[in-house]
Structure formats: C-alpha cells, structure tokens
Amino acid sequence: MKKGKFIVISGPSGVGKGTICNRLLNELNAWYSVSTTTRAPRDGEINGVNYFFVTKEEFENKIKEGEFLEYNIYNGNYYGTSKEIVVDKINEGINVFSEIDVNGAHNIKKVFPDALLIYIAPPSIEVLKERLISRGTESIEKINQRLEIAEKELKEVDFYDYVVINDDLDKATDEVRNIITKEI
Ligand code: 5GP
Q1: Residues 136, 92: contact at Cβ < 8 Å?
Q2: Nearest CA, atom 19, ligand 1
Q3: Measured distance CA(88)–CA(104) in Å, rounded
Q4: For residue 57, what are the CA distances in angstroms to 61, 69, 165?
Q5: Mean pLDDT estimate for the chain
Q6: Which one of 4, 5, 47, 150 has the fewest CB atoms closer than 10 angstroms to its CB?
Q7: CA distance 62 to 19
Q8: Could you tell which of 13, 46, 50, 74 is best to mutate to test the pocket of ligand 1, judged by most ligand atoms within 8 Å of the CB?
Q9: What ligand 1 atom has the least distance to the C-alpha of 11?
C-alpha cells in the first residue's frame, strides 16, 4: 500500500501558516498532527484542537516515555510531535500535515526522508512585526523575541523543498496547494 506523505509547514508565528493549513486540510483530505506544548493557550485556542497543552513536567515525562517523533524548545517552551498516531496515519496511506519549526523539520527529515518541507515566509520582517502587533496575542517583548527567531530561521531555509512568500493569503494558499498536489 502507498504510504502517506509527511507534509511539514514551517514559518514564523503570524505568517499565516495556520490559515493556509486549515484551508487545505479538507480539500487535500489530509490529517493534521496536533502538537503538544507547554506554552499557555492563546485566546480562542482549544486543547486537543490547536495543541495539547501540558505542564513542563508532563512534557518531560512524555520525552522519557519516548512519545515524541521529534521535539524542540522554542522561545522557552517545549513543542513536540506525537509518534504513534503519526506513524500509524502514514502507514495507512494518509497524508499528514504538521506545523513545526526549522529544527523539527530537520529531525522529521531524518525519520521520513521523503517528507515534503514547505517554508512560509513573510514578505519582510517589518510586515511580520505589523501582523504580530495587530494580532495582539503577545507582549511586545515576546513579539521581539519571535522576530529574532524568525530572522535566524529565514537564514536556514535552504534545506526546505519550497519557500512560499505570503504577501497575499489567497495566492500563497494556491501556491502551497499546487506544490502539494504535484508532490503527492
Ligand atoms: P506558536 O507558539 O506560534 O504556536 O509556535 C511556535 C513555533 O513552534 C512555530 O514555529 C511552530 O511551527 C512550532 N511548533 C509547533 N508545534 C511544533 C512541534 O510539534 N514541533 C516543533 N519542533 N515545533 C513546533
């Protein structure tokens, strides 16, 4: 049986990757890998939908129990991808979408060498800053930390299969859709 494809969508917070994933999930009949994190939920985020929100202790127990395919610390919080369910879906021939950072993408490539890696980039760091400020979910201090990470990430995107610049959500979604349909 043909295995599913592991599709990694990376990009800084505020770049619109969540919106792009949501638009394409139903269309492409893919399954979304809900990550586990120790960061606090933002307004409107739902446990089990956006993330599984756990304490640091719970996360570290899961690491010890080998529950993660990959995990990373991003801006002071743990984020990880659950192993069992993702591997099952891939083996059942189901395509899996995962929103993970650059480190996570490197690690996923080691486990699934034919994973499709797509990086969603902002048109500029200034535009990203404006989007994060208008989203209003983080303090300016946190926003600046995230912008620093984004600048670093943007220098490391060469190993991605595709980089899509989101200066227009509809156009960026079309581009990601075309890449995925071509690759699967
Ligand atoms: P946010 O706090 O904005 O939801 O996510 C922060 C960063 O963590 C984003 O780059 C996001 O893609 C990444 N991330 C989310 N889930 C995972 C995961 O399971 N593993 C890794 N490595 N990164 C993740």
Answers
A1: no
A2: 80
A3: 19
A4: 6, 18, 37
A5: 94
A6: 47
A7: 29
A8: 74
A9: 10
Using a 6 Å cutoff on CB, does residue 104 contact ligand 1?
yes
pLDDT in tens, 36-49: 999 999 999 999 99
Span from the CA of 1 to the centroid of ligand 1 (angstroms): 31
For a ligand 1 pocket test, name from 97, 100, 135, 152 the mutation site with the most ligand atoms within 8 angstroms of its C-beta. Answer: 100
State if residue 145 touches ligand 1 by the CB under 6 angstroms criterion. no
pTM: 0.91
Q: Which two tokens stand for residue 149?
A: 């990470």
| Alpha carbon distance 180, 166 (integer Å) | 16
At a CB cut-off of 8 Å and minimum separation 6, what does 76 contact? Answer: none
Q: Quick check: 38 and 59 in contact, CB under 8 A? A: yes
